[in-house]
Every structure is written in C-alpha cells, then in structure tokens.
Design a protein that fits this description.
- There is one protein chain.
- The protein is α+β, with helices and mostly antiparallel strands and about 200 residues long.
- It contains four helices and twelve strands.
Length: about 200
C-alpha cells in the first residue's frame, strides 16, 4: 500500500496501476518506483479507492524551477547520416541535403521547417519538427557544419526546455485524462488555487 503524508490513509495498489518516474530532469514510464521518505508524488484513486496512477515528482519548489532541470538548456550535435536516418523514419526525404527554419512563433519556437532531400522538399510544422529530428523541443537554434563543397556534414542544435515550458507535466496530464479527469480538474491539480474564467464572450 501507499501512505500519503498529507492524508495519513493507506491505499491499496490497483493491479492495473500505471507508473511514471522522475530521473535526471525527465519523467519516464516505469515498471517500478522506489520511493524514499520525502518523495513527492501524484496519484489517482480508481472506483474501488485503489491507486491506479502514480507519478513520482521531481524535487522542485515550484513549477518555474524547471530551469534547474537537465532539460532547461541542452545542446546536441547530429551528423547528416544520423539526421537522415531519423527524418526518414517519419518523412521519405531520401538523402538529406539541407534543413531550413521557415517560421518561428511568438514563444521563439520553430513552428515550420523545410527539409530538402533527394526525394524532394517537405515542409514540416509544429511538434512534427521535434519528432522528426528527435529533439526535446522546438525552441532551438541551429549551427550547420558544411564541407568545402557545401555538403551538409552535421548540425548542432542548441535549445531550451522539453515541451511547452509552462509547468504542467505532459505525461501526468495525459495519464489523468485517460482516466476520465476533465481539463478543469487537471489544470487545478497542477495550478492550485486558480479559477477558470471565460476571457472573451
């Protein structure tokens, strides 16, 4: 069973429990979680009052403290071959020739990119950019390294964040949603003491 500090009751664990663990600044699905005294966690009770969702929380003071996460600032260099392989898993570009930023959003995230390859040019938008490049976020800058003949050799991506950057765990929110929680319940779980009002009629 599991004991909550804020509510000293014991709850059984559901046989269908889903676990998420914090490690190194990231949240991952887990087969098991080892909790120690002082760990913070989110959980959900099913209809029989058993825990069917458990997420170990990072040791943070607040939502804005993600700047101390390993994901706040990151840099990764990928060779043309690596990029070609990952992009082709999503988009059939053939041999990669170039990638270019087309448009940025207000947050500074790249919201449209153009991939050029032997099979043609493809415009990719939104989260598909992150997925195609296998990066943590679309808030990044690129530095391309090219050969003397202009051939793309590698690209260094320097970025910040992992997701939307507003302090709501995407994994946790998804877990709550698939268990029937409404958007209002999810938002009030992560942002305590708030009221949701209509901004415009």
């Amino acid at each position: 069973g599991m004991v909550s500090e804020s509510s000293p009751a014991r709850f059984p664990l559901s046989s269908r429990i889903v676990l998420f663990n914090y490690f190194g600044g990231d949240i991952f699905p887990a087969e098991e979680i080892k909790l120690i005294p002082g760990d913070k966690f989110l959980f959900h009770l099913d209809d029989s009052a058993a825990i069917d969702y458990l997420e170990r929380k990072p040791p943070m003071k607040g939502a804005s403290d993600d700047r101390y996460s390993s994901n706040y600032a990151w840099e990764v260099t990928k060779s043309r071959e690596e990029l070609e392989k990952t992009i082709n898993q999503k988009i059939p570009i053939g041999s990669l020739a170039d990638l270019q930023e087309v448009r940025k959003g207000r947050s500074g995230r790249i919201i449209e990119m153009r991939f050029s390859g032997s099979a043609g040019e493809f415009t990719v938008k939104g989260l598909n950019i992150r997925n195609a490049l296998q990066l943590k976020d679309t808030l990044f800058t690129m530095h391309k390294k090219q050969g003397s003949d202009g051939t793309l050799l590698s690209v260094t991506f320097s970025g910040k964040g992992w997701g939307h950057g507003v302090g709501l765990c995407q994994v946790g929110a998804y877990g709550m949603a698939i268990r029937g929680k409404t958007y209002e319940e999810i938002l009030k779980w992560y942002y305590t003491g708030i009221d949701l009002i209509r901004a415009y009629d």
